[in-house]
Amino acid sequence: MNDDPDESAVRPGEVAVALPSSTDAGVYFIGTIRTPWRVREECPKRGEPDGPVCSIVVDERWREALTDIARHRRVQVLYWMHHARRDLVLQTPFRTGQTTGTFALRSPVRPNPVASSVVDLLAVEGTTLRVRGLDCLDGTPLIDLKPERTHP
Ligand SMILES: C[S@@+](CC[C@H](N)C(=O)[O-])C[C@H]1O[C@@H](n2cnc3c(N)ncnc32)[C@H](O)[C@@H]1O
Question: What is the pTM of this model?
Answer without folding.
Answer: 0.94
